[in-house]
């Protein structure tokens, strides 16, 4: 493997992982998963030449003289979230269940939504200029049963991808997930009950009439009466948190609506109007929409699947005195999460979904016209944007060693983003590949998740 020439670098990384209390993934010579081992044992195997490094994130070694071995029960536990999902691997040892690896996976559903919204706007503008009589194409397309929008499918795909990856790196025998359901009506109006629960906010009204009565037939911003009024978004639909929900709508006159533009009510100078809008329930709606799709696809893996409620997760976490984090919620999912040991020095791997590049052939201006040429090559001199590399520059102003993610240039002079800086203009001749780009970036959480004196009430704010 090409990693063997960088053993000294990875020795330093392994010493750091000893502090983090994360186990090292191990595969045998046939690339079959073995039980994850302690970092000290991994260092010993590497030093004796019995193993070589095959992957950096997550850190994985291959034992060259071993085939198969004794296994324990290993469970991958998942706490799904609309923005961030907690993942934990819990192994059953003689002393009891223990968390041996943890991660927090950050999704890019909002970026997907904004990208598709931008594409839709460009196509709408082009259609109105050139083919105004042709109906939109999306109205002629069929959706398969259970199909989710791309922005909601993204978290599901990310979770399934990592379940599959972890199954190749560890002998996974069970799965567990939190199958939560959020009552958005109760979340918005905690005191609602009886027939009011069934009727909802707009019983007996349409949206415009409801807003006119609510604002007393006057503009919510300038207060003018007797002029045509328009339905207006307090938080624009193109901004994060914007939606067609009635709590995000108000009535405004035409001049105020045009002057406000794409700003929120607070940015427009009316923070009290935005404060009146209830907090958005987008995250709860995302979980309600995707939970059964994720459940069915996890069941399709053939592994036994345990499910638990959010109340059970919180009860397990509170009883064990763990703070509120996504990965600790994953540890405490279900009945098996009632008594799981977590090392005080455990630091989860923070995984950020970045995608695998863009299929857009060229960049366009604000009117939708091309402004750049099509990309000719995705790889330059064997490197691709997002690859993890090591560059050793022997002389010159930029002499030194750089380890990080690369941004390629057709000129052959790359930018390398390290943990502390971004080095620009590094020649490809000094670069060595460490790990190919896989659509994710990685880093470890800084600081301990709790000190020995942390109490059960010292919770981190929920996201």
Describe this structure in words.
It is a single chain. With 463 residues, the protein is an alpha+beta fold. The chain has a domain at 195-276: Orthogonal Bundle (DNA Binding (I), subunit A), CATH 1.10.30. Helices cover 28% and strands 23% of the residues. The protein has twelve helices and 20 strands. The chain has helices at 7-20, 39-48, 109-130, 150-169, 184-188, 195-199, 207-214, 254-260, 271-276, 282-299, 310-319, 326-331; strands at 24-27, 33-37, 51-55, 60-63, 74-79, 84-93, 96-106, 174-178, 229-233, 249-253, 305-308, 349-353, 379-380, 383-384, 388-393, 400-407, 413-417, 422-427, 431-435, 440-444. The strands form five sheets. It has a seven-stranded mixed β-sheet with strand order 11-8-5-6-7-12-20. A five-stranded antiparallel β-sheet has the order 18-17-16-15-19, with no helix packed on it. It has a four-stranded mixed β-sheet with strand order 2-1-4-3, with helices on both faces. A hairpin with a 5-residue loop joins β1 (24-27) and β2 (33-37). α4 (150-169) packs across α10 (282-299). The longest helix has 22 residues, at 109-130. The two termini are 41 Å apart. The model is unreliable at 1-19 and 451-463 (pLDDT under 50).
């Amino acid at each position: 493997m090409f990693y063997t020439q960088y053993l000294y670098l990875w020795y330093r990384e392994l010493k750091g992982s000893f502090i983090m209390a994360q186990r090292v993934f191990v595969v045998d010579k046939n690339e079959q998963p073995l039980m994850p081992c302690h970092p000290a044992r991994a260092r010993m195997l590497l030093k004796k030449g019995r193993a070589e490094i095959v992957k950096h994130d997550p850190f994985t070694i291959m034992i060259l003289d071993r085939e198969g071995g004794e296994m324990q029960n290993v469970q991958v536990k998942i706490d799904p979230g609309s923005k961030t999902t907690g993942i934990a691997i819990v192994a059953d040892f003689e002393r009891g269940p223990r968390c041996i690896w943890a991660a927090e996976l950050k999704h890019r559903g909002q970026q997907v939504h904004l990208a598709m919204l931008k594409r839709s706007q460009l196509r709408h503008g082009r259609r109105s200029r050139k083919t105004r009589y042709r109906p939109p194409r999306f109205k002629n397309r069929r959706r398969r049963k259970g199909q989710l929008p791309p922005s909601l499918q993204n978290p599901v795909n990310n979770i399934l991808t990592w379940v599959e990856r972890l199954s190749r790196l560890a002998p996974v025998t069970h799965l567990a997930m939190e199958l939560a359901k959020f009552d958005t009506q109760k979340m918005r109006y905690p005191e609602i009950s009886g027939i009011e629960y069934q009727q909802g906010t707009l019983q007996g009204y349409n949206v415009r009439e409801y807003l006119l009565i609510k604002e007393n037939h006057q503009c919510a911003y300038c207060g003018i009466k007797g002029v045509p009024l328009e339905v207006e978004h307090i938080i624009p639909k193109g901004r994060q948190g914007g939606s067609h929900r009635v709590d995000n709508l108000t009535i405004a006159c035409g001049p105020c609506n045009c002057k406000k533009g794409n700003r929120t009510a607070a940015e427009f100078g009316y923070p009290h109007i935005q404060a009146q809008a209830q907090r958005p329930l987008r995250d709860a709606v995302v979980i309600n929409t995707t939970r059964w799709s994720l459940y069915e696809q996890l069941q399709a893996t053939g592994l036994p699947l345990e499910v638990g409620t959010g109340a059970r997760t919180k009860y397990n976490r509170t009883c064990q005195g763990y703070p509120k984090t996504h990965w600790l919620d994953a540890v405490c999912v279900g009945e098996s999460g009632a008594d799981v040991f977590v090392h005080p020095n455990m630091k989860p791997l923070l995984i950020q979904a970045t995608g695998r590049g863009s299929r857009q052939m060229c960049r366009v201006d604000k009117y939708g016209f091309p402004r750049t040429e099509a990309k000719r090559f995705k790889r330059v001199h064997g490197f691709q944007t997002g690859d993890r590399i090591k560059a050793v520059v022997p002389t010159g102003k930029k002499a030194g060693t750089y380890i990080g993610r690369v941004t390629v240039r057709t000129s052959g002079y790359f930018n390398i983003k390290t943990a502390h800086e971004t080095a620009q203009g590094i020649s490809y001749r000094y670069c060595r590949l460490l790990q190919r780009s896989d659509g994710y970036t990685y880093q470890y959480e800084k600081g301990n998740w709790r000190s020995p004196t942390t109490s059960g009430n010292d919770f981190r704010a929920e996201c």
